[in-house]
Amino acid sequence: MIPANFTYHKASSVQDAIALSQKLGEEAKYMSGGHSLLPMMKLRFATPEHIIDISKIDGLSYIKEEGEILRIGALTTQSEMEYNTLLRRDYPIFMDAIKLTADPSVRNAGTIGGNIAHGDAANDQPALMLAMRATIIAEGTEGQKVIPIDDFFHGFYMTALEPSDVLVEIQLPKKKKGSGGAYHKVERKVGDYATAGVAVHVVLDDSGICQEIGIGLTNVSAAPMRLDRGEAVLKGKKITDDLIAQVGTIASEDSEPTSDLRGSEAYKRSILNTITQRMIRLAIERAQH
Description:
CATH architecture of the largest domain: 2-Layer Sandwich
Number of strands: 14
Helix content: 25-40%
Number of domains: 3
Strand content: 25-35%
CATH topology of the largest domain: Uridine Diphospho-n-acetylenolpyruvylglucosamine Reductase, domain 3
Structural class: alpha+beta
Distance between the termini: 49 Å
Radius of gyration: 19 Å
CATH class of the largest domain: Alpha Beta
């Protein structure tokens, strides 16, 4: 389908984007890469009267470590992340997710900020953000906002961002000794949205005890979901096969999938059990090397 008519605006800075949003009102939407918003517009699920293009704002595309923080600019594209030496070497969980995200043409334009800000439980990056305990930095009419990831996703396509807020940066804990992460999703075909997906990030001490654990789930609830009960089972313990199996069962029980063209509810719960166990094992393997 063809999107409904809209008026296009190009923002030259974050403050320009905020001012345009304030002027145009709630019928205005930001767009960076467009690969989350435009499909919804084509299906008439979203019909904004105004599009504010923020994709050319300078200074919002970067990947760097500063102190104990990994900082990623919101306009960094999936392709820029895919070929970044630092991420490839120290944060392979991103490579896991990006290679399963759509196709190269989409990754060349789609940004990490847009992927997260859209609040879509079917997008891949939100689960990673939950697993790695990200902090979201936004700019709005009252200045900068610092939003812990557990306070960010509110529901079906709902986030903590106000209509005029611009997501400008994602902050993640810097890689630690004994840390490892992994992500996988089951999909009907290459580049499809997830039938179900799981991101796991773990930090082990020298004796193999789990000091930190994060588990994020993709497309099995109305909003991106943290597997709280599963994390509680593993934290502070030496992770065994029995505990991993227990967390897989918890993932199948605590998720909220619905039957659709990608599979039945029972099927999604079953594969979620399996990939949760596999990603925990892979995250541990990476943490030990």
